[in-house]
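I hope you will forgive my troubling you with a question about protein structure. The matter concerns a single protein, recorded as an amino acid sequence and a row of backbone structure tokens. Please examine both parts with care and let me know of anything in them that strikes you as inconsistent. Here, with my thanks, is the record as I have it:
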Amino acid sequence: MELEEVIRQRRSIRKFKSTPIEEAKLEKLIEAARLCPSAKNRQPWRFMILKAEIKDQIADIMLQLFESHDEKLPGYVNSSRYTAEIIKTAPVLILVLREADELWTTGDLLSIGAAIEHIGLAAVDLGLGSLWIRDTGYTEKEITELIGYPELQLVSAIALGYPAEHPEPRPRKPQEALLLHYRKH
């Protein structure tokens, strides 16, 4: 598929078929991320590919957040409940981690974001769907302890599978609304 078409076809997929993802395709996704540029070539990303029970345990940790709070959680946290259910239906969950280093936070997070987008675009090219997930951040400590890496920062996660939906493109601002023009002081 041509790059422009891959970019146009990329969507956040929230419904997946139960079909397993071939190992060769998972390797291609990680390779796409590995080849991504990074600030000062730090390559700060670490990936963990999870399936089956361990993947579902991550979702359960996210759901426990709601059981352990008697008070109402802020609205944006409530999306974690829906995201946890999506994780359970996705055949694969990739956790994206990094070694925490305050001096490199901005560069590392920008680099990791680019690596995640490489995975998302490669997924489209391979006939897969993906969902870039931020909601794992609310239960980061519990998740990193479960997977055996409490010293790492859980930056994000990616749900992957063959799409069981084909959503329409979300509205986008026109280019004119995005471009700033130099203002002399």
User: Anything to note?
Assistant: Residues 3-166 form a domain with the NADH Oxidase fold (CATH 3.40.109.10). Residues 16 and 164 are 5 Å apart (CA to CA). Strands lie at 46-51, 92-99, 129-133, 152-161. The chain has a mean pLDDT of 94.
